Amino acid sequence: MPDYSFEESAWQRGHDLVIGIDEAGRGPLAGPVSAAAVLLPDGFSHPLLDDSKKLSEKKREQIYADLMADDGIRWGHAYVEAEEIDSINILKATHLAMARAVEGIGLDLSPYCLIDGLAVPQFPYESEGIVKGDSKSMSIAAASIIAKVKRDRAMVKYAEQYPGYGFERHKGYGTKVHLEALRSLGPCPIHRLSFAPVAQLELL
Asked: Which has the closest alpha carbon to 54: 155, 132, 169, 139?
């Protein structure tokens, strides 16, 4: 279960504001990449909080509701949509979403950022990467919940706008159902045209 080991290490090095950052949606063929940044209040705990990928949708929604209801938590969230992903590539889009999420918190002082995964070169804030950080750091775990739930909800709305693809079920990932829909319907405006399965269809 995640704890405050990485946050405490940063605090001991003189960083007063320590933020956890995570993303959701790097791999799908459609929809945005979603990133969240979270600054937890002193003493925050939650009995269910963990890496969002380890939790059921019901538990993620429950934790998300608890996070949103806690006035002591400061957070920011950002999307980078498919068109911009195609323009700059998914890795740069992910890093851009993370930076925008930090900006969204609206802090007066520059924070120290704990980022899930590898270190991000030239990130606009002082930071470190923590591989599998969403299962190690409380702040990153909280960010993983917000990033995932917000993206899933966005994909459900996109399913209403672009019916027939099953976005409400697979959330844009390259499942068999999604690939079959792509072949029969062709890509829609939220598909990532630079991703191989979609790009290959464009060439047919």
From this structure: 132
The answer to whether position 28 is within a domain reads: yes
Residue 29 lies in a domain: yes
Answer yes or no: is 37 within a domain: yes
Q: What is the CATH number of the domain that holds 27?
A: 3.30.420.10
DSSP three-state, residue 201: helix
Q: How far apart, in whole angstroms, are the C-alpha atoms of residue 149 and residue 65?
A: 10
Is residue 59 packed enough to be buried (19+ CB in 10 Å), middle (13-18) or exposed (0-12)? Answer: middle
Give the whole-angstrom CA distance, residue 5 versus residue 32. 31
The predicted-structure confidence for 17-60, as pLDDT tens digits, reads as follows 999 999 999 999 999 999 999 999 999 999 999 999 999 999 99
| 198 CB neighbour count, 10 Å cutoff | 20
Q: What is the largest CA-CA distance in the chain?
A: 57
Asked, for residue 185, whether it belongs to a domain, the answer is: no
Q: Are 31 and 154 in contact (CB under 8 A)?
A: yes
Stated pTM of the model: 0.96
Residue 84: CB partners within 8 Å, gap ≥ 6? 93, 96
Range of the domain at 143: 5-153
**Side chain identity at residue 71, one-letter code:** D
Under 8 Å between Cβ of 73 and 16:
no
